[in-house]
């Protein structure tokens, strides 16, 4: 009895995509979807209406010649003043949070949690109506002083936590070395800890500055006169006069021209810090 060897042909193996090819195919599908969405928007938008409502040439000219420079100046003044107050108060609160004295820590914690939980709009409204419960009270440099205090106090609650994290990031060895050289605890904090901490927290503090620029748009709640208008209030009032959204569009572009360079600066500082690490 003879046996014959039978050779079995292997089943065809399906061609599977490699992970790299699969990722490439998914990426091309995403590109195609994006192109289709953009094309749909381009084909469905009424560009004539967009031009008339948002980019009217006459309204753009009117916006630039009716006090836009004053609105930009006021926006920057409101922002810088609030940032300075927030930075000073935030530094004090951060040191209080790290203090060995219990009441200091409790007060700082209560302040931070309270003002982080309140909308900036409500805080501004309270400061704008302080003359009602306190007759005769006059905040210096009003309306700038009112805005500086309102936005600055809210910003201080956020800056305090940022600065506290920066202080805690400084090595304890730095403090011990300063104390070994005869420095007091206060001098070591001022000359060694705070300069290093502020260097670490500059990027997040710059982000806080950007937020303050946008929060300055809340000034409208105070009912200020035309000379104190910031960009949003200026654009809204002029838009009501012209029955057009072009002034608000110009105001929005002004915000972008101010904040985009700051955002770029933050990214560069963060990249530099990563390289130094």
Automatic annotation (TrEMBL):
<dbReference type="GO" id="GO:0043190">
    <property type="term" value="C:ATP-binding cassette (ABC) transporter complex"/>
</dbReference>
<feature type="transmembrane region" description="Helical">
    <location>
        <begin position="117"/>
        <end position="139"/>
    </location>
</feature>
<feature type="transmembrane region" description="Helical">
    <location>
        <begin position="248"/>
        <end position="267"/>
    </location>
</feature>
<keyword id="KW-0472">Membrane</keyword>
<dbReference type="InterPro" id="IPR010065">
    <property type="entry name" value="AA_ABC_transptr_permease_3TM"/>
</dbReference>
<protein>
    <submittedName>
        <fullName>ABC transporter permease</fullName>
    </submittedName>
</protein>
<keyword id="KW-1003">Cell membrane</keyword>
<keyword id="KW-0813">Transport</keyword>
<dbReference type="Pfam" id="PF00528">
    <property type="entry name" value="BPD_transp_1"/>
</dbReference>
<comment type="similarity">
    <text>Belongs to the binding-protein-dependent transport system permease family.</text>
</comment>
<dbReference type="GO" id="GO:0006865">
    <property type="term" value="P:amino acid transport"/>
</dbReference>
<feature type="transmembrane region" description="Helical">
    <location>
        <begin position="28"/>
        <end position="45"/>
    </location>
</feature>
<feature type="domain" description="ABC transmembrane type-1">
    <location>
        <begin position="72"/>
        <end position="266"/>
    </location>
</feature>
<dbReference type="InterPro" id="IPR035906">
    <property type="entry name" value="MetI-like_sf"/>
</dbReference>
<keyword id="KW-0812">Transmembrane</keyword>
<feature type="transmembrane region" description="Helical">
    <location>
        <begin position="76"/>
        <end position="96"/>
    </location>
</feature>
<keyword id="KW-1133">Transmembrane helix</keyword>
<dbReference type="InterPro" id="IPR043429">
    <property type="entry name" value="ArtM/GltK/GlnP/TcyL/YhdX-like"/>
</dbReference>
<dbReference type="GO" id="GO:0022857">
    <property type="term" value="F:transmembrane transporter activity"/>
</dbReference>
<keyword id="KW-0029">Amino-acid transport</keyword>
<dbReference type="InterPro" id="IPR000515">
    <property type="entry name" value="MetI-like"/>
</dbReference>
């Amino acid at each position: 009895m003879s046996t014959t060897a039978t050779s079995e042909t292997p089943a065809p193996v399906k061609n599977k995509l490699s992970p790299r090819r699969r990722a490439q195919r998914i990426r091309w599908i995403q590109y195609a979807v994006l192109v289709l969405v953009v094309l749909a928007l381009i084909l469905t938008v009424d560009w004539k209406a967009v031009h008339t409502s948002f980019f009217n040439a006459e309204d753009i000219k009117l916006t630039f010649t009716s006090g836009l420079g004053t609105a930009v100046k006021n926006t920057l003044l409101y922002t810088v003043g609030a940032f300075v107050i927030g930075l000073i108060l935030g530094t004090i609160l951060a040191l209080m949070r790290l203090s060995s004295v219990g009441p200091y820590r409790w007060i700082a914690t209560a302040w931070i949690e309270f003002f982080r939980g309140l909308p900036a709009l409500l805080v501004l409204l309270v400061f704008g109506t302080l003359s009602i419960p306190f007759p005769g009270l006059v905040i210096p440099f009003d309306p700038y002083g009112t805005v500086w205090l309102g936005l600055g106090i809210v910003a201080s609650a956020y800056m305090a936590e940022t600065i506290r994290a920066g202080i805690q990031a400084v090595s304890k060895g730095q403090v011990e070395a300063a104390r070994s050289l005869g420095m007091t605890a206060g001098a070591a904090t001022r000359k060694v800890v705070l300069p290093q901490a502020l260097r670490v927290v500059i990027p997040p503090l710059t982000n806080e500055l950007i937020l303050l620029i946008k929060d300055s748009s809340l000034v409208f709640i105070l009912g200020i006169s035309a000379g104190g208008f910031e960009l949003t209030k200026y654009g809204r009032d002029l838009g009501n006069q012209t029955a057009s959204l072009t002034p608000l569009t110009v105001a929005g572009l002004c915000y972008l021209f101010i904040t985009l360079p700051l955002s770029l600066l933050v990214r560069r500082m963060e990249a530099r810090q990563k390289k130094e690490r």
